[in-house]
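Blinded run. Sample ID left blank on purpose so nobody reads anything into the name before looking at the predicted structure. Input follows.
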Amino acid sequence: MATTQSKPSVKLNVLQRRVVRALDNRRLTLTLMPTEKCNFRCTYCYEDFELGRMPPQVVDGLKNLISTRAPELRVLDLRWFGGEPMLGMPVIEEVCQHAQGLRRKFPHIQLVSSMTTNAYLLDRASLDHLLDLGVNYFQISLDGYGDDHDQTRRRADGRGTFDQIWANLLAMRDLERKFGVMLRIHYTPANLPEIKKLIEAVNREFGQDDRFRVFFKAVTRLGGPNNHLIQATSQEWQARTKAALSRLLARRDEVIDPNADGAYVCYAAEPNSFVVRSNGQIARCTVAFNDPRNQVGWLRPDGSLDLDLDRSRLWFEGLETLDTKTLNCPLPTLAELPPQLVSLKAAG
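Blinded prediction complete.
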């Protein structure tokens, strides 16, 4: 009797699985900047705050883009960024409500929405409203406890911000709804002795709440007017310090380290991930906005993407080489643009 031979199974390692995921056309990740204005002036910030709220034609472009892609999508991931995104709440409301309508029409779509916010405006009522809109994961930065935080994360008028942020975090903790918070704790050689006070407070107030987790991040030179004032540190120092701080947390599962397994694929290296600036310009990375290699196209009001493929391909080298450093952060290894590609045409 004839027998059939089954094909040998191919076991993909973690990195390969993440590359396959990055290439999946059924996933669409949009990092959206409803405004590039901010109510803070953090001393190490690299943004210039020149662009205001996203105008109606760009909002229409976003809605048309996700409407066009919806029938084929398995995952729609909306990530709100800024500036301070909560200063552009009408844009967030309009796009999220549109996405929720599409989710009802196409129930196969997994709709995910998150926000990177300074949390100064994230009071109880605003949180309830965002959760109703489907925004249920928040990244919130802290630079220390009390006055230590206020040395670097200041309002635009120079006043401190910690007390309001901390009060909002405590109100979040007391709300019995489902959400997640990444407390992004920034450390430098200068503030390191004081960070321990913040960790003690995090343990005390949030150590029993698994909705809150911690990501330790060294402050590094990313550009901006105060770039020269930031003390450079080695990757070894950053890793050693992060490990020491992590050991101070109350829960072992409380630490977030996306590169812990060495197989992290940056959103900028994913072909189906786009940063949409408030003026409709398409970028790959949320850091290097003034780098022409990061200015890859424009979103049109009809939802189409007018992309410069030569610039775009620069970001995908790691998907071919599987070099973990390039996949982790494509920017340092990007080739220089030919002179004729340095100037990208303005949106028409």
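Unblinding after everyone has recorded impressions. Confidence is low (pLDDT under 50) at residues 1-11.
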